[in-house]
Every structure is written in C-alpha cells, then in structure tokens.
Write a structure and sequence with these properties.
single chain, 8 strands
Length: 257
C-alpha cells in the first residue's frame, strides 16, 4: 500500500471525473489519500469527499495563499470545526513568501493562530513552506507543536535537519521525477528514509510524464518507483517505509487503517 499524504481531490479540476480519478488511484495501490483544506469555506467540501471516498482522510486548515480573502473570524469557525470533526491534522497551513502580493503579516497571523489550534487539539500540522522555511521554523521553535509534515519540501539539507529535529517528516512528490531537480533529488536520496513521506499535491505539481498537465493520486506508484531507484532500494522497501512514516506523522492514519 502507498499513502498519498497530500492531494486536493476536492479541487474543481476534478469536478468532471472525480470518481474515475479516485478509482484509478485505488486500483494503482494507493490505500490512503490525505486531503487538506485550503479555505474556511472549503471545509465542508473536504468532508463531503470523505463521505464519498472511503480511502480519503482529512486535514482542516486555511492555506496562506487564501488568507487575503479570509476573515479573522475564520479562525473561530475552524476551531468549532476541529472540535466536532476528527481530522488527521491542521492543514494546509503555513507561509508563502514566493507570491509577493499577499501580506506577510496577515499570513503570519493566520499561521500562528492555527498552530495554537493544533496545540489545543493535540494535532499535527501539514505545512506549506514555499519560500518561507526559516520564518516557519522560527514559529515552530516558538510554539512547539507536535510535528507533522513539511509538504513539498524544497529547502537545504540544514533546513531539512531542523524540521526533522522538530518532529516533522518531509513530503516529496513529482519534483523528484525531473532530472534537472538536482538538489531535491539529492535530498530524496540522502536524507534518512525515516524522514520521507510521499505525496502528489494533485492536481498540482505533476511529475515529468505529466508536465504541463493535471496531476492525480494514481501517479504516486511511479513516483515511489523513482524514489526507490534514486535510493537504490526496492519498491517494496520504499512503500513500507513511507507508509510507516506517514502514520508516524499523522497517527490518525493508523486508527483508520
């Protein structure tokens, strides 16, 4: 079995063929699909996806790229939601300093408030870290949440080691399938296997053979095969290790197995 630790199956890109996308993933050997929300208004859409697709599990949070359209009261709404639902994690939350037109102060406020919620409910985090790794590490050291996953990790080895020290796994997906992604491929090859989880970020971050197209969770086995090739391990070893790591990062996966 493989676990896709980050997939937006609720996204509009799947509205025309979501059933088929899910069925293809299950047929390919993907046994669990983690769906993080991105807006307060989208919480119910994620929940509805869980009802329809039994292998899916939820994380609930407000993505940093959507805080501009959000309201401070969304934090209270999320708090009530976390109190009544059973999510794996608070996510997708974090900071994005790559996109320049979103107020970094507002991003940080939403990020910190959601870290506090994760601590209140004793939940791990699913982090968006693009262009903002050091700023995120600063807040993690300050508040000390229980860990989780740094999604789409693209930092340095030193930054990777800092996340690992703080109890986080690192998410790798389609990026490792590109021969030109030398730094990411080097990290995927040399980091302790205990630190790595697999993800697609579908419909985004397509692998090399889907470049420019829509990603899907059914691509995860081939991504896993490439990771096995890079690390000179068997696919069975990679599948088993990354599943163990996903459950360690998101313990609710074990309870729902």
């Amino acid at each position: 079995m493989l676990i896709d630790t980050h997939c937006h199956l609720d996204a509009a890109e799947f509205d025309t063929d979501r059933d088929a996308v899910y069925a293809a993933a299950i047929a390919a050997g993907v046994g669990r699909i983690v769906i993080p929300s991105v807006t307060a208004n989208g919480l119910n859409e994620v929940k509805n996806t869980l009802v329809r697709y039994p292998a899916c599990r939820a994380a609930y949070g407000i993505h940093p790229l959507y805080v501009a359209q959000g309201r401070e009261s969304d934090i209270s709404h999320l708090q009530r939601w976390l109190a009544t639902e059973t999510p794996l994690a608070v996510g997708e939350i974090g900071l994005d300093h790559f996109v320049k037109n979103i107020d970094p102060v507002r991003q940080e406020w939403f990020f910190v408030e959601q870290i506090k919620l994760a601590i209140t409910f004793d939940l791990p985090l699913i982090l968006h870290v693009r262009g903002a790794i050091d700023a995120i590490l600063k807040q993690l050291r300050r508040y000390k949440p229980r860990g989780g996953i740094a999604h789409a990790f693209n930092g340095s080895r030193q930054q990777a080691d800092e996340f690992i020290k703080l109890g986080f796994k690192l998410g790798f997906g389609g990026t490792i399938t590109y021969s030109g992604s030398t730094r990411i491929r080097e990290l995927a090859t040399t980091l302790p296997i205990e630190a790595i989880v697999l993800e697609t970020d579908a419909p985004d971050m397509p692998p090399a053979w889907r470049k420019g197209g829509r990603n899907s969770p059914a691509e995860l086995p081939e991504i896993a095969r490439i990771l096995a090739e890079l690390r000179q391990q068997s696919l069975a070893e990679i599948s088993a290790a990354t599943c163990r790591n996903a459950i360690a990062a998101l313990p609710g996966l074990k309870e729902s197995a």
